[in-house]
Amino acid sequence: MKLLLLLLVALATVVVAMPPRKLRAGVPEKPYRYGQPKEGRKLVCYYGSWAVYRPGPGKYDIEDIDPFLCTHLVFGFAALDNTTWQITAFDPWNDLDDNGGKGAYRRFNALRQINPALTTIIAIGGWNEGSEKYSDMASIPERRATFVQSCVQFVQLHGFDGLDMDWEYPSYRGGAEEDKIHFAALLRELKVAFSAAGLLLTSAVSPSRVTIDDAYDIQALIETLDIINVMAYDYHGAWDTYVHHNAPVHGHALDSGNNTYFNVEFTINYWVELMGVHSDRLTMGLPLYSRGFTLDDPALNQIYDNATEAGIAGPYTRQVGVLGYNELCEIHRDQGEAFQTHWLDDLKAKYVIFERDGIRNQWFSYDDIDALAEKMALIDALPIGGAMVWSVETDDFQNTCGEGKNPLLNYILRSLNGFVPTPDPDRTTVSPPSSTTKPSVTIPGDDVCAQAGINPTGPCSGNYVICAPNGAEWIVTQGSCPPGLVINPEILNCDYPDHVAGCQKKKH
């Protein structure tokens, strides 16, 4: 029987070794062809705000986000206070303006001043938040009511367009069997309040069939959620004792038990079947990072070969067994021919083997443009609403690979809608939140435009103009800060008067 299985694998798996010139060099011709670009598809992009603390070239702040590459930007994450049962900022110093904070929420939402078509959402939860306190909150109607009210106020106060409910996962990780019922009730109560306030309600959901069946009341999701982001990744990783792909399109000949469900094709088709005519609300999650292992024996490097140790940690993501695409690009640059990419034709997926301490024992699965092409073809063939990525700060935003900045995001957007709406904007400054804006006009502008970008209209004023060069003239857009704020000329953004020299209120 074992010999038969090995023969099946030999027939089913085509491994193509690729020259180390580029991460994506030499992939076989694709079996799919794209149809006409689809209008209105979504590209939902999560941003992991802790990336601001990464060292060196891995540091990624709000101003590194290209607001034209996504239709929806999701800020990860807010948290649940399990003493008050209210939503709260996870990192107040980074997220808020209070006490000299960095104002990430404000700056994140100000990206809509650059791209007015952009939708911004705050996510609550995530893997590290766990499940238990969400289970405790959702189990008691009074706690749910407190949470719902706090969410509406929080989203409105900080200027987001909606909330992403990222409870991972109801009925699991310390939750209760009744979580499925309570999560449905919570979503329905959130929907009533959010609809009244004109806000979006979305959720990130599991790719696992078993978790889907245990955690989600599908009818409740249909009734309440504007977008359902299917996390079609993390099927395999360092928690396994064998090598397998993070996000394979198809299954493997040796997959058995629950592993037969652990591929993108099964996950998305299962969700489409469950959602029925409402499947256009689904987005397919795409990882912009890799997961990997240290091979027990470097000579045994095929799917299901032994790997009892996690792969290396990247210099920026700093988590064993995880590398951003940007980190893979750096390893490729540094190792040259020791870095070899391979194509698994049955899985329609990529992996790479490279050295650690002179031994080629690092095995990492990942998606590049060629692997993403297979997934974009699957999206094209299905009645779903678009794609989702986790997460923007692990794309090659420094152009280390030589494919341009953000090559994966650019490719995904082109594949979804046939074009990139605009070149990378000049983001030396980010426009502040505006309570009122007026249409742009083209004028000589010398009297109001001292420089490109934001120009205050006077000292200690909350009014400003945004000046964009247009030959010998300027394109000028007028705007104003929210009430009580003024333009701080040092940071060219809205700020409290007490923070701006000469604008402090006199004390009597």
From TrEMBL:
Annotated ranges, domain Chitin-binding type-2: 446-505
A Pfam family recorded for this sequence: Glyco_hydro_18
InterPro entries: Chitin-bd_dom, Chitin-bd_dom_sf, Chitinase_II/V-like_cat, Chitinase_insertion_sf, GH, Glyco_hydro18_cat, Glyco_hydro_18_chit_AS, Glycosyl_Hydrlase_18
CC annotations in GO: extracellular region
Signal peptide bounds: 1-17
UniProtKB keywords: Chitin-binding, Disulfide bond, Glycosidase, Hydrolase, Signal
BP GO terms, sorted: carbohydrate metabolic process; chitin catabolic process
CDD domains reported in the protein's UniProt record: GH18_chitolectin_chitotriosidase
Gene3D superfamilies found in the cross-reference section: 3.10.50.10, Chitin binding domain, Glycosidases
Keyword Disulfide bond carried by entry: yes
GO MF entries: chitin binding; chitinase activity
Keyword hit for Cell division: no
GH18 domain mapped to chain residues: 41-419
Family the UniProt entry places it in: Belongs to the glycosyl hydrolase 18 family. Chitinase class II subfamily.
PANTHER family with a match to the protein in the record: CHITINASE (PTHR11177), CHITINASE 4-RELATED (PTHR11177:SF360)
Protein name: Chitinase
